[in-house]
Automatic annotation (TrEMBL), chains A, B:
Residue ranges of coiled coil: none
Molecular function terms from GO: LPPG:FO 2-phospho-L-lactate transferase activity; magnesium ion binding
UniProt protein name: 2-phospho-L-lactate transferase
EC number: 2.7.8.28
Enzyme class: transferase
Annotated HAMAP family: CofD
Length: 310, 310
């Protein structure tokens, strides 16, 4: 039984971790958003891939909610003294990932190969695959003009009002070979769209020509888990952004957004009975993942739903 | 009164610090060896410039004897786990210097400009100037073949037997403009060759076409301080290297090596009366610099000798 998960950063990585813990090594392929990637201080940073790497390796910081546990910040302090750019916080241990990745990419390796190597070094049994080896960059049109994603997300802390989103480079990109291979695997039993931001994390992945087609072409059921509970995002700017682009922040809006791409939509139990206003099949489940048990339980539930849907 | 110091790393930086503390801000220009520079993990590392920066900024680690005080090593630990190259130890705070330098150089800045900016940020009153903005790379021919300097010095810990030295790129390099300007300054009162390794630290500087000529053209006296005391190097591989290339490890050999370039040679008091076998003027002084007072006292002594020699 093989499973593909489509994931952005922190929210998606929670369910990816549950799936990783429930499935045998090698069964799970996580296709990660790289629209948030950027070059910063000369380093190639892939925030969502890193969140997945650290989360699946058990290196994530459970208190801060991002980055690595037991992290130190000496680099940032020294950089600040040198007048360097410090708005994007890079921990000392985290830096090793960026330095190694940048060195490998500059040496001609693909992002897929670098990511596979990092995952192997960290002892991760699941595959983590970038959506594409080509650069696709999320840009955000706001009331202050166009901003690169991290400038919107981290530097400006999502404060500017969003007008539109663009995924630069998507038109000429193609899915990473390992992503297409995982989606075409005859043993594929489920495609899980994790509870990531549909507009900022999942849409960049689906914007790569051939990716949505590969999802549709697979006989495996596509199951999406809502990132919106009772009109609120568990974390991050999803609800604010939906409101700004004229959408009602609700699980129903997300379901309608995915539309026919999704076979089954998983609502949080708090939203049970919500009128999705669509013909999509839906079920409710406890989707709030605070503990590892929550993650494992939701993963089990989603895999069971996939079995039934087949 | 202006002073130029010619310096490599740790040994030279001690006297440079003494001079920096004795002279008013702006009076001292330290011309630094960049033959040890290399690209490592995608970063441009300038070990001797960094030693000078940290030493003059009071950020050097007095216990370890290299790098920054209050340093942490989380990056190295994380890099090791990722299978990265860990033979060259990069502290977390030290990394900020390399990342900022690399970013600036890749953006088109000269090494002179980057170094001046770093020194300014660290509140250093003296000028630290690379010997050249062009790459000059020390290579070491050993019984194991040719080695890049840091591979010889750090990775192999100076264990291979040295046959010869080469300064790649020197022939087509030219001195940094600020180095030439400092040497041509009509107010220049002394040129001090610090007690650095003559072959590995000072020779690369003098190998840049125009540098030795600028020293000779200056009316200021050139005063060299011996890095060899009683046939031993205070630190590092100077004596071992001299022995390997067929030279007697002695202050007299160093004096003969500098020859007519130097007007006055400062021996350690332990070597007082040593027959230099040359017509060079020489004096003895306490050259072992353990404390800041030792450094300041030797700096004062050297400056006084320069006054008399003028």
């Amino acid at each position: 039984m093989k499973v593909v998960a489509i994931s952005g950063g922190i929210g998606g990585a929670k369910l990816a971790l549950g799936l990783d813990r429930v499935l045998p090594p090698g069964a799970l392929t996580v296709i990660a958003n790289t629209g948030d990637d950027f070059r910063h201080l000369g380093l190639h940073i892939s925030p969502d891939i890193d969140t997945l790497l650290y989360t699946l390796a058990g290196l994530d910081d459970p208190v801060r909610g991002w980055g690595r546990r037991d992290e130190t910040w000496t680099f940032m302090q020294a950089l600040e003294r040198l007048g360097g750019e410090t708005w994007f916080r890079l921990g000392d241990g985290d830096l090793a990932t960026h330095v190694e990745r940048t060195r490998s990419l500059d040496g001609g390796a693909t992002l897929s190969a670098v990511t596979a190597e990092l995952a192997a070094r960290l002892g991760i049994g699941s595959a983590i695959v970038p959506m594409s080896d080509a650069p696709v960059r999320t840009r955000v049109e706001t009331d202050e003009g166009w901003l690169d994603f991290q400038h919107y997300f981290v530097r400006r802390q999502c404060q500017p009002r969003v007008v539109a989103l663009a995924f630069e480079g998507a038109a000429s990109a193609r899915p990473a070979a390992a992503a297409l291979a995982a989606l075409a695997d005859p043993e594929l039993a489920a495609i899980v769209i994790c509870p990531s931001n549909p507009y900022l994390s999942v849409d960049p992945i689906l914007s790569v020509p051939g990716m949505a087609e590969a999802l549709r072409a697979s006989p495996a059921p596509v199951i999406a888990v809502s990132p919106i509970i009772k009109g609120q995002a568990v974390k991050g700017p999803t609800a604010k952004l939906m409101d700004e682009i004229g959408l009602v922040p609700s699980a129903a809006t997300v379901a309608a957004h995915y539309g026919s791409l999704v076979d089954l939509f998983v609502l949080d139990e708090a939203d049970a009975g919500l009128d999705l206003g669509t013909q999509m099949a839906c079920v409710s489940a406890p989707t709030l993942m605070r503990t590892l048990d929550d993650k494992v339980n939701l993963a089990r539930r989603v895999l069971k739903l996939a079995e039934r849907a087949t």
